[in-house]
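Tip: read the tokens left to right.
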């Protein structure tokens, strides 16, 4: 195992996940307003109506592009899964590195480090679930 390469992959995944989460948090109130407006004007909460509302107000995707119905769908329905998958990947890679290092130097696996990683993974997943529900207006603020 090339530890430096694995740590680089973990850092890259974490950076992308954090950027996606931050952007979703920034766009959250606007998406909620777009959904509310679409419902208020009897346009339903169609993905195209939400995308149009966001574009009319110059909101951009994480990559700086205009929103499309598909982009809105991904934001609403895949943000949570993306965060969960990234958190599980980061956790798995960190545990693999810990086990590899302890196997090579003969020391026992530090269970407290694994527990700390589990807590971080679970906190990240919970944040993703809450963010996904909030984006879809499934939280108490709806």
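Filled-in amino acids:
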């Amino acid at each position: 195992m090339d530890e430096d390469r694995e740590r680089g992959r973990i850092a890259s995944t974490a950076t992308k996940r954090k950027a996606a989460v931050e952007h979703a948090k920034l766009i959250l109130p606007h998406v909620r307003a777009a959904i509310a407006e679409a419902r208020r004007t009897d346009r339903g909460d169609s993905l195209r109506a939400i995308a149009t509302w966001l574009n009319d107000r110059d909101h951009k995707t994480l990559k700086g592009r205009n929103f499309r119905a598909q982009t809105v769908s991904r934001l609403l329905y895949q943000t949570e899964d993306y965060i969960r998958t990234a958190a599980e990947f980061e956790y798995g890679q960190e545990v693999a590195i810990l086990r590899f290092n302890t196997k090579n130097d003969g020391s026992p696996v530090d269970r407290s480090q694994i527990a700390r990683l589990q807590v971080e993974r679970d906190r990240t997943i919970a944040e993703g679930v809450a963010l996904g529900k909030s984006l879809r207006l499934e939280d108490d603020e709806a």
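The chain has one domain: 3-135. Residues 79 and 132 are 6 Å apart (CA to CA).
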